[in-house]
Predict the structure.
Amino acid sequence: MKRGQNRERILLAAVDLFNDAGTVAITTNHIAENLKISPGNLYFHFRNKEEIVRELFERMCKETYEVWIPDKKLDAHATPLQLIEKSYEIFWTYRFFHRELYHLRRKDPVLAKRWKAHITKCVRLLQASYHHWVKAGVMKKIEDPKEMKMIADLVLMTCSSFLQFFESPDKPATRRTLREGLEHILRLLLPYHTESHRPEVRNWLAS
C-alpha cells in the first residue's frame, strides 16, 4: 500500500475513534490496533496524536472554506439555509472538535493559534456572504455595526458549542442533535431575512 494511502487510512480511523470515544481515551496504539498496523507504521506518518489532531483540524477548516467561498465561475452563492446545512454536515464529521476544542486548545498552543486564525477567517467569510445576501435581496441590511457583530458572534458561538449544550454522557449526539443546533441558528436569523425569503426557512423549520 502506498504511503499516502496509509496516511489517509490513519486519519479516517482516527476521526471515527475520536468521535466515538474522545481524544483523551484514544491513543496512537488504539488507532494502530484498529487498522491492524504496527505503532511504528503509524509513527512513520505522524510523530504523535497531536499531529493527527492538527491535520484533522486543517481538513475541517479546508472543507468549511470550500462551502463558504462562492463559486465565482458560476457567479453563484448558496442561500443561508443551504450554507448552514452544508456546514453542519462538516460539524458532524468532525464533532469531537466541538466537544473538546477548549481542552485541545489549552493542551496544544499550535492548535490554539490555528483556531484563532480559523475563527477570524470564518467571520470574514460570514460577513462577505451576508453582504451578498443583502445585495441579492435575501436578507435585510443591518445598519448598526454592533448589532452586526453580535449576530456574527452568536452564529459562531452556537455553531462551535451546540454539541456541548445538547449532549450528555448518557445521551450521545445524534443527527437529531445536529438538527436542533441548526434550528437555533435559523430561528436566530429568521427576523433578518426579507419577507420574500422567510418562507424557505419557515418551511424547513416546520418539516
Summary: The chain has a mean pLDDT of 89. The domain at 1-47 is CATH 1.10.10.60 (Arc Repressor Mutant, subunit A).
